[in-house]
Amino acid sequence: MLFEQIATGGCRSYLIGCAETCAAAVIDPEASQLDRYLALAARDGLRIRYIIDTHTHADHFSGSKQLARKVNAPVVMHRETTAPMVDMRVDDGEMVIVGKLRLQVMHTPGHTRDSMCLQVEDRVFTGDTLLIGGTGRTDLPTGDSDALYDSLFNKLLRLDAATLVFPAHEYKGRDHSTIGDELASNPRLQAPGREAFVALMANLNLAMPTHITEALRTNLSGGKTVAQMLAEAAAAVPFMSMAQLRTRVEAKDPMLVVLDVREREAGMAGHIPGAKLLPRGQLELRVNEELPDPTRHIVACCEFGRISTLAAATLREMGFQRAVALDGGMKAWREAGFPLEGAEGR
User: Fold this and answer.
1) Which of 209, 279, 318, 331 pairs with 91 at a CA distance of 20 to 30 A?
2) Region 339-343: what's the mean pLDDT?
3) What pairs with residue 96 in β-bridges?
4) Residues 270-298 pLDDT 10s
């Protein structure tokens, strides 16, 4: 078996492949690592046949839908998931066949209702059901401490003690553990019985994940994250440096339009000389009035360079083929000491 563990902060995802058939699967892909999965598969001569999420993630953004689109492979999750972009729903005791590899599905609800583990050869991918020195939390949507107790003690922990454990999270840099090691030393598994375990889980007092609202929204719906929308916009537009824009502004380039897409109060407080103020929220409705010539060289700018990137991408979609975004934002422009008009102008 070909095997690669990919770390993204505290998140862990995995590429596993069959050396004989060159078929592969990616387990718990993270949205920022799509190019890495493709590069690793290409390096080993593998074709990704399945993208598998062990559960609905609440603390990071799944890359399953995007990766599936890139490699034309199905997204696999447990049948209890409500995510609409799933192509193959599996159940306890079933297998996902990847070349000569057999991934055995174990339904392990508790962290979430749709949690599952995958056993293949000498290892088990435990998602957030079992972590190294811990377990998945049960205070997020569809979490259930009673169910987690059953999943752990009546199913997962009954695997051979030598079985390697590869979780979806690890925050101390450890690669893996074993079932035996976790039984012996994992503090949450030392609770003397169900009631004690449930009480322990109820009193962890963990902070909520930073991006829980956006993560649940996108992972449950297949919608786009803000970062994904920004990345797609950035890939679709060119950029102009602040130095180049300053040169063109000072030369009074007749084809140049500097489009400040901040709210009007921010724009009036200080803007690039000659800039046209058109808030991003009004762009589509006022574009014909404010930008009648689609051949002009439009440079969109905002405070930090993100909203202007989205604006430039929108303008290009609308036919303004010379629309670009300023590389940087008004904050960087001010800090560079470049000229301003308005209340902050000099």
Assistant:
1) 209
2) 84
3) 103
4) 999 999 999 999 999 999 999 999 999 99
